[in-house]
Amino acid sequence: MTLRELFHLPKSINHKPIIAVPLTLGPNYKITPFAQKLQEQNPDIVEWRADYIADDFSRPVMWQQVKAGAQAELAQKEVSAMTEAKLMSEMDAAQQEFNANWPIMNVQIIKELTGSLFNTIGSFPIILTYRTKAQGGKGEMSPMEYTTFVIAALQSGYHFTAVDVEYTLDSDLRDKIFQVARSLNIPLILSYHDFNETPNVAEIIEDMAKSGADIIKLAVTPNDEQDVQRLLDDTNQTAISQSLVTISMGDLGRRSRIEGYRFGSEMTFAVLDGTSMSAPGQLTINELLAAWQ
């Protein structure tokens, strides 16, 4: 099965790869302008980089907002030092209650975030992705928090076209996400990132293929042109049953984003005009289309 078939996308007339665009908007940005650009430039699929927004609704952040609101309200009242001390001590009990109720609150927050996304750009297929800083993203969640977030998003009632899980995630946590995704019939992308070098690509791909994921995705960093060519050649020669996506990052690896499909990479990432890159070396959709002319 090709990646287009797995994602239920129409066949490409010119045999070009799937074009995915990252959505990297934080809580202070409106999604409507992004949605308008989507309609204008019409990529195949959107990758929701949830790490750009999810941490702003984490338990510590939300509690600080609740606490700051209570302190601001207290500051507007004329109370004695004794009363103020008593009220502040009660804040500790309130925090304990907040923590006890957090799991339910967290699920609702994630559902609302996901709903806002789908209600705005749901006409496009959406990949769910959360990347930590170590993986080249913005996220600071612990592995357990990350797993909880991804599972809650998958179970929010909105159907993602795929979910991206990092290869380096603890296997037990990874299996939990896999199990939920399987139960919802959501394809699994297993990703590996190396921001320092181009390792033994063929060996890593073959090892990742044993995981049971539906798509294997590899993004590495070249130190010379030979590294770029090695990635392309290994992509072409690797024999696995899953769909494969490989990328050589940075300016040096840009041609892998343009030519990768000729070697068997079934998806490439490009950004909408006026939006920021989610990984080094990404082209705009217009630049990519022009390179294919």
Structural class: alpha/beta
Shape: elongated
**Major pleated sheet:** 9 strands, parallel
Helix coverage percent = 40-55%
Rg on CA atoms, Å = 22 Å
SSE arrangement, N to C: HEHEHHEHEHEHEHEHEEH
CATH class, anyone?
Answer: Alpha Beta
CATH fold-level assignment: TIM Barrel
Q: Strand order, biggest sheet?
A: 7-6-5-4-3-2-1-8-9
Number of domains: 1
End-to-end span in angstroms? 27 Å
The appropriate CATH architecture is: Alpha-Beta Barrel
How much of the sequence is in beta strands? 15-25%
CATH superfamily: Aldolase class I
Strand tally: 9
Mean model confidence by pLDDT: 90
The low-pLDDT segments are none
Furnish the topology, listing elements before pairings.
Blueprint: H1 3-6, E1 18-23, H2 32-41, E2 45-49, H3 59-75, H4 81-121, E3 126-129, H5 143-154, E4 162-166, H6 171-183, E5 188-193, H7 201-209, E6 215-220, H8 225-237, E7 243-248, H9 254-259, E8 267-271, E9 283-284, H10 285-291
Parallel strand pairs: 1-2, 1-8, 2-3, 3-4, 4-5, 5-6, 6-7, 8-9
Helix pairs in contact: 3-4, 5-6
Notes on the structure:
- This protein is α/β, with parallel strands linked by helices and 293 residues long.
- It has a single domain, classed as Alpha-Beta Barrel (TIM Barrel).
- The chain is 45% helix and 15% strand.
- The chain contains ten helices and nine strands.
- It has helices at 3-6, 32-41, 59-75, 81-121, 143-154, 171-183, 201-209, 225-237, 254-259, 285-291, and strands at 18-23, 45-49, 126-129, 162-166, 188-193, 215-220, 243-248, 267-271, 283-284.
- A nine-stranded parallel beta sheet has the order 7-6-5-4-3-2-1-8-9.
- Helix 2 (32-41) links the parallel strand 1 and strand 2.
- The radius of gyration is 22 Å and the shape is elongated.
- The mean pLDDT is 90.
